[in-house]
UniProtKB/TrEMBL annotation:
Coiled coil regions, renumbered to chain: 463-490
Pfam families according to UniProt: TPR_16, TPR_19
Upper lineage: Bacteria, Pseudomonadati, Pseudomonadota, Gammaproteobacteria, Cellvibrionales
InterPro entries: CellSynth/LPSAsmb/PSIAsmb, TPR-like_helical_dom_sf, TPR_rpt
Keywords carried by this UniProt record: Coiled coil, Repeat, Signal, TPR repeat
Signal sequence interval, chain numbering: 1-19
The protein's name in its UniProt record: Tetratricopeptide repeat protein
Amino acid sequence: MRFFAVLPIVASLVLSACAALNDSAPQSSADAPASYSAAKAAAPVPSRPFPDDAFSDLLVAEMAMRNQDLQTALAKYQQQADITGDTGVIATTARLAQFLRDNETTEKYARQWLQREPDNPEIHFVLATALSRQQKPLAALPHMTRVLELGGDANFAALAAAALSRPEQQLEDFRLQLDGIAKRYPHDNSVRIARALIFQYQQQEEKALKLVRQVLDEDPDNAHALLIETRTLKQLGRDGEAIDRMKHAVDQNPSNKRLRHDLARSLVKTDLYQAKAQYEVLSRQFPGDTDVLLELMLVNRELDRFDEAEEQLRQLIASEDQSSRAHFVLGRLAEEDRDWQTALEHYQAASYGEEFDRAVRRLAALSAAEESTDRALARLAALREDLPQHAVTLYLLEAELLRTSAQPQRGFDLLSDALAEHPDDEGLRYARSLFAEKLGNIEVVENDLRHILKRDPNNAAALNALGYTLANLTSRLDEAEQLVKRALQQEPDDPAIIDSYGWILLLKGQVEEAVTWLEKAFAQTQDHEIAAHLGEALWQAGDQQRAKSVWKQGLEHTPNSPIIYDTLRRLKLMND
């Protein structure tokens, strides 16, 4: 029994859940009602008479809600909110859009609603939630603060979760503003939880634990505080204590999906039988959740409960939203078992669904390794016929196989065919230019890269590629230098561009300056091409020992580096 083989698979399934806490904030009826009836019941009665056609559309919307056709209902409410300007209809539109997680629509109508009722805490909550779901936590913060000021129940944790995915400076700005709110509301548990979440993310575990335990002292069954506490304990490596606290949390909150799911996933590492028991409870509580079903299927496979696993697999494959994912996971497991043919079959099947990107790459790599490059190319070409919407991606994967198998003419011909179908695709143009360079076809290289630059004049990759190619294949060194300088303006720290610039300087005879630039590139990455260039510059500068050392490092990185061996032959340091 491959007890731990399932762990990396389940870990990959957990990534989105752990990213996570956007949806692990405490739920309220305003944020995520169990059905739309709660939000509908709260809708104010229309405040002024409507024309007959308006009532007709509102009646259609009402009937659509009764039939759970919520998209139709939303469309009708939007239409009538715009026509009538009625506060009640605007409010219902905002609530329904929020329930459907149509965040832009929610924001639009919540702002209209706010103009009519500026001191309504529900509106500020709805607007803050919509903004945070659009990854605008700083814009959401004043509205959630206003909820507190107006005496409502706030949910700062959802905003903090959104802030975690923003750039570092935005997260820091959010944290500082949240600290200011904490000084005004030092005993508000929602603020404490949000700050704890940020501390956990920043690996300041003791500060996180202090805050959540303040919350739990006042509210021992607070699900979100328990969730952060157990995850922080796991982060500290205190797995046993974390599982004990998770079990307590689940006992206190038996219907809380996130807590039980966290417990089940943690038990996969220590006790598959207990994990299975928790997944089975989840499966009964949430029978439509295919994520739970997928993980339960994996656990049953590890426990050799093949009959149960097969039935669950049958359900997953029949499920429109999980079939591709199930095949991808089974492909991974088959690879671990070195069952290449089964893995290929699953990856092929997974390529027709949401797992297309990951599955088709595994399919190509595995087929090339275990079958042949030609067989892998045939598989990708067949998929291209079946999935024309993914043709560009598949062409590029085929081209990559041809590049790694050193077939530049076939790669060039393939991409020429691709460009006949997709003439403006920059990825195809760029890829073909690389093959054209290998073939010494400077005209095509220049045409393809200038085609990209005509549409995107500051495309650093194209500027660098064109400059580097002109330097290698023509005598137009000044033009090449200007192109690479423009690329450096866009990406000043890119080692490939720095290398190009240093190489051009070397070709122009500016040896000392070339060494400076090439050493800067080599300090970032010991790529064999940079090693070839730096070694040659050092050799010309008279530092032969250092040059040999650099070439040696490059060969350690890429043992059969053609560019290093070509350099050594050109410098007559080895025989042909």
